[in-house]
Amino acid sequence: MTKKDNQKDEAMQQLMKDPRFKLLTAVIKKNQNQSDTLIQILHQAQNLFGYLPMPVIKYIAEALSLPPSQVYGVVTFYNFFSLKQKGEHTCLVCTGTACYVKGAEKILAAIHEKYGIKPDETTQDNKFGLQIARCLGACGLAPVAVVDNEVVSKVRVEDFMPILEKKIGGKP
Amino acid sequence: MKPPFPIEIDGKVIQVTEGQTVLEVCQANGIDIPVMCHFEGLPDVGACRLCLVELKGVPKLLPACTLRVAPNQVINTQTEKIKKYRKMIVEALFCERDHVCAICVANGNCELQDLAKKVGVDHMRFPDILQPLELDASHPYFVIDHNRCIMCTRCVRVCAEVEGAHNFDIKNRSYKVRIISDFNQPWGESKTCTSCGKCVAVCPVGALWSKSSYQGKIEKKKEAICDLIRKRKVNV
Amino acid sequence: MSREDLKQMAQRIQDDKKKYAYTIFACNASGCIPSGSEAVFEALKNCVKDRKLEDQVRVVSCGCMGICAQGPIVRVDPDQSIYQKVTVENAHRIIDEHIIGKTPVKDMLLFSHEKEPLINSFEETFFKKQKRVVLRNCGRIDPQSIDDYIAEGGYQALEKVLKRMGPEEVIAEVKHSRLRGRGGAGYPTGLKWEVVYKYVSDKKFVVCNADEGDPGAFMDRSVIEGDPHRVLEGMIIAAYAVGAQKGYVYIRGEYATAIKPLETAIKQAKKNGFLGETIMGTTFKFDIEIRIGAGAFVCGEQTALIASIEGRRGTPRPRPPYPAEKGLWGYPTLINNVETFANISAIIVHGGEWFCETGTTKSTGTKVFSLAGKVKNTGLIEVPMGISLREIVYDIGGGILDDREFKAAQTGGPSGGCISKEYLDRPVDYESLVELGSIMGSGGLIVMDDTSDMVDVARFFMEFCMDESCGKCVPCRVGTKQMFDLLNKIYIGRGTMADLKVLEELAIFVKEASLCGLGMSAPNPLLSSLRFFKEDFLQHIQRNEKVVKPLI
If we measure between CA atoms, which residue out of C471, C426, C435, C456 comes closest to residue C533? Predict the structure, then answer.
């Protein structure tokens, strides 16, 4: 066994000690290790861990007897799944048609100016991550953003930035 | 054996049997249809769109590789529209990644090159969408150069369906799709790859080659793979 | 359970409700939640408790009433008074003044900008030109309660079908209604059912497509949030008609607020014998499972949706064979959209003939639209097919925001197109929209005013399609990226007339040579903008300098 393999096994060992690992095994068991439930299991895993760490993906592939590349292919196909840890605070800006027409890009530009990050990026201190959504289905209230699970609707840039700063706590 | 029935292709009446694809019929009757993602014996995916044909009564164009014959079909395979789109598909493939024949291992032995000659592509009319990609030479015997890959997925299918290893799959989507090995690892670190070389044999271009080949010299044993699949099917 | 049992049950529940003098409906759909509706609902409940009115006033958390922009919305029945922008602070006034004091709170009533505040406003203005079939119960019942649905006549269609109709009769009735698929393409629903019915197979599936991926559309979500049992009933009837034993609802992962009521509804339906083995005492069995999507627009395409339910990458495959022949795991599969299923129970109860009375000859019934963009009344509407765009924008939508000039209406999302003001009086039905280079789509309708730049809009949709392309077939994978690059070039003022020509050539190529509906329709927004708003493009090309922010 090479040195690299050893390291990887350590990551797996680490995972098995994690209390959330038990919940993940329960989810897989509930789905009877059926390969067609892969996406449903990935959803649950992401709920548990906040994102999809590599050892988790490996464990799921093993448990469902699926080829590694196929599982990785599924994870990267869907927007919802993230291989990277998200920031401590998150801001999700909707860029659906209604929000776009009503100026969602102004908000993104303001965030970029202030925090220097673009969608799918996190500030260097990992404190604040920015994401975009295709459509949150709240078009009547466009433009819409979600800051740490709280929905802010009919966002105007000048009103929005103070809200964001308050949440994140000052400058990055 | 099911009884044969006639269909019309390019004005000719041809006897066919149920279960055949239009592509098979055309190939058996000397009707030339270019293909790229199709490989004899592998499951067809209809992705490259080169084999598009017109079926009378259907407004959209259909790929011959997945279209099954049915009674009363009238098919056209060589209309001006189809020829134009075939050329545009080849042009699109050239625009997508870095295809420089002069420095390619597959030069002179490349299906994309042959196609370009056949449909008459000699310069690029459309904007390219090139993005520099990596070349993975971590495998002891083989190399994969993503810059030359045309995403025909023959290697993915031959590895999963014929070798049964499923080392390769595809990651991401849109123009960002790439062939990956296991968990997006260097090929050399793959645990599933059996180093059988089938992927190299079926690759239509110079994206996959064995380290023993050099510029302009590549050996691809495509017939061997076709033969293998055929014999296996007979024995099953 | 017999028809009489069901009717008695409905009667009993209705009688139970009669003991309440008032019912307060507090909208808690995704349109009102961001405005703080959950807290308002709690405040109303606590206030009723405080005033010791629990025996007389029922407070219900309900689905979308349609007037999302004015949310949170609260309705007081039987007076049908609608209150807008209710807050935790002023919620008690509804109880104190309206219910105890018997005088509606004038300054909180909906449409207070009218000359007279509308006390019984439900049938006025916004709702006047609407006809509610699919949304009948939406905002009028508690979506978490199967009793409420049964009291409104729910599951009577299922009873009728199971006890008194054969599968062929059901299909004949649906065919007679000339109902067409509400997901976008408008394929006749009855014909689809018949095809699946005719295939002989030991297993068949029914799938409800709730992967509402169009940006700017939220109809399916609202229907599921507000009246989930209506969708389930449609699915069960469909399963009986085609002979399926198992169903799936494929719903977007983003729709957390719709997944919960749907789960509850499935549980309730099972408990009450409308799902599971021996449905309503017959030998018919059917079960429904929820599958949660993970953010891929292409999964709205039938074959991609199948791949996704099977747990694979959501890439489409060439058709034929159609899912009706070879669908989930190779078995015949019926796939319909949420709104299509939601129409079924009404068709069975009132008959196909009744359904045809609404709409036009070729497009019967009603259509739900989510009206958004630069109109005054944004929200959820249901209108008879064939209504003019002008009526939707000006009568229901109340006209353009800030009284600006109407420029375009976008229908069908990234697969549709923009309709210019010359065509405002064209009827909205499947054929007319296709004629105008757009499509009905799933029902997103976004209004743009004269400040909208159509090149930017075309670029927005092209970026969407480029990103959402599954990357399988060459024309879509390469072509959408090439077109986006060209549009961007034109937008930032570096484009030439030659670019415009290449753009048009690529658009037609991608439209005709792509594998699935996504690629085939991706050029639609561009082509329709080029057709109606060519000046916008020419302006960009002529003006060689324009300061632009980078696109997201």
Answer: C456
Q: C251 - beta bridge partners? A: C210, C292
Q: Same domain for C442 and C344?
A: no
Strands A150-152, A145-147: pairing kind: antiparallel
Claim to verify: residue C318 and residue C424 sit in the same structural domain: no
pLDDT in tens, A46-59: 988 889 999 999 99
* pLDDT grade for C208, boundaries at 50, 70 and 90: very high
Q: Report whether pLDDT(C120) > 60.
A: no
Q: What is the pLDDT of residue A170?
A: 55
Whether A135 shows a pLDDT value over 90: the answer reads: no
| 3-state secondary structure (DSSP) of residue B104 | coil
* Tokens found for residue C256: 């957390």
* Residue C501 is assigned to a structural domain of this protein: yes
Nearest to A54 among B167, B170, B183 (CB): B183
Q: Chain B: give the shortest CA distance to residue A76, in Å.
A: 5
Report, as an integer, the average pLDDT of C128-153. 92
Which residues in chain C have their CB less than 8 angstroms from residue B63's CB? 318, 515
Is A69 in Cβ contact with B181 (below 8 Å)? yes
Domains of chain B, residue spans: 5-78, 86-231
Smallest CA-to-CA distance from C237 within C183, C330, C169 is with C169
Residues of B in contact with A58 (CB under 8 A): 183
Look at residues C414, C430, C446, C431 and name the one whose alpha carbon lies nearest to residue C521. Answer: C414
CB contact under 8 A, A54 and B172: no
Mean pLDDT of C517-532: 95
Is the separation of the CB atoms in A132 and A119 below 8 Å? yes
Q: DSSP secondary-structure letter at A87? A: P
H-type alpha helices, chain B? 22-28, 80-96, 111-119, 154-157, 198-202, 222-235
Secondary element (H or E) of residue A6: helix A3-17
d(CA B148, CA B136): 12
Confidence of residue B232 (pLDDT cuts 50, 70, 90): confident
pLDDT exceeding 90 applies to what percent of chain C?
Answer: 74
3-state DSSP of C225-264: HHCHHHHHHHHHHHHHHHCCCEEEEEECCCCHHHHHHHHH
Contact B167 A69 (CB under 8 A): yes
Candidate from C298, C466, C512 with C-beta closest to B61: C512
Strands C366-373 and C246-251: what pairing? Answer: unpaired
In CATH terms, is domain B5-78 a member of 3.90.550.10?
no
Nearest to C318 among B66, B93, B175 (CB): B66
Q: Does domain B86-231 have CATH number 3.30.70.20?
A: yes
Check whether C1 has a pLDDT greater than 80.
no
CA gap B146, A38 in Å, rounded = 28
Mean pLDDT throughout B80-89? 96
Which domain range does residue C151 map to?
146-354
Look at residue B153 in the predicted model and tell me its pLDDT. Answer: 97
Residue C273 has a CB neighbour count (10 Å cut-off) of 15
Residue C308 has its nearest CB partner, among A39, A100, A137, at A39
Chain A residues whose C-beta sits inside 8 Å of any chain B C-beta:
4, 54, 57-58, 67-73, 76-77
B157: closest chain A residue by CA: A70
- Give mean pLDDT, residues C346-354: 96
Highest mean pLDDT among A8-17, B209-218, C76-85, C510-519: C510-519
CATH label of the domain that carries residue C273: 3.40.50.11540
pTM of this structure: 0.91
Asked if residues B61 and B52 have their Cβ atoms less than 8 Å apart, the reply is: yes
Whether B180 sits inside 8 A of A70 (CB atoms) is: no
